[in-house]
Amino acid sequence: MAVLVGKKAPAFSAKAVKGETIIENFSLEQFIGKKYVVLFFYPKDFTFVCPTELHRFQEEIAEFEARDVQVIGCSTDSEFSHWAWLNTPKNKGGIQGVSYPLVADINKTISEDYDVLAGETFIDEDDNVEIEGELVAYRGLFLIDKEGIVRHQVVNDMPLGRSIRECLRVIDALQHFEQHGEVCPMDWEKGADAMQANHEGVSSYLSK
Length: 208
Prior knowledge:
By secondary structure, the protein is of the alpha+beta class. The chain has helices at residues 49-59, 61-66, 79-86, 109-113, 164-180, 199-206, and strands spanning 13-18, 21-27, 36-41, 69-75, 102-104, 120-123, 129-132, 139-144, 150-156, 182-183, 195-196. 26% of the residues lie in helices and 26% in strands. It has a 7-stranded mixed beta sheet. Strands 6-7 form a two-stranded antiparallel sheet. A hairpin with a 5-residue loop joins strand 8 (139-144) and strand 9 (150-156). Residues 199-208 have low confidence and may be disordered. InterPro entries: AhpC/TSA (IPR000866), Peroxiredoxin (IPR050217), Peroxiredoxin_AhpC-typ (IPR024706), Peroxiredoxin_C (IPR019479), Thioredoxin-like_sf (IPR036249), Thioredoxin_domain (IPR013766).
């Protein structure tokens, strides 16, 4: 699994769906210098665990917006699948009401660039393309800063849902560091003491 932290987030241009609108050329470039981005991958539309995550992101969308963060979902489904799911009521297994964009990674290139694509392709002895497993995305999440640099990533296996609370905590930690130059220790929460990024600051914190 590639570690993208500290590196430029892989660029892409793809179709996406926001509400009832299909966007032809959606990319991360539009957010450079303007917003942080939480880009999360999920396996499939019209499944069981995935809608709980997508609805949970929506429930907390005001918290992300207050932190100047753009939430973006992505799976290997087509834009037409995204559109249908977004227009299906929640009580029928849909995600109607989700307001952030969903990217269609139908060619699997985005998932591959972020190294969250499950399954493998290979060429057999007769030069035929073979696929082992299902080519869908793991539950990857990437926090990208305003300069387009990945600052945090986490990848879960498909049965394991993520924590929105932890995602917000890490955003708070990054923004605290950017604003104050202080590093945030384990389980740090917004409003708690942080540490100066030197040995004196660490000693001061540990002595409390």
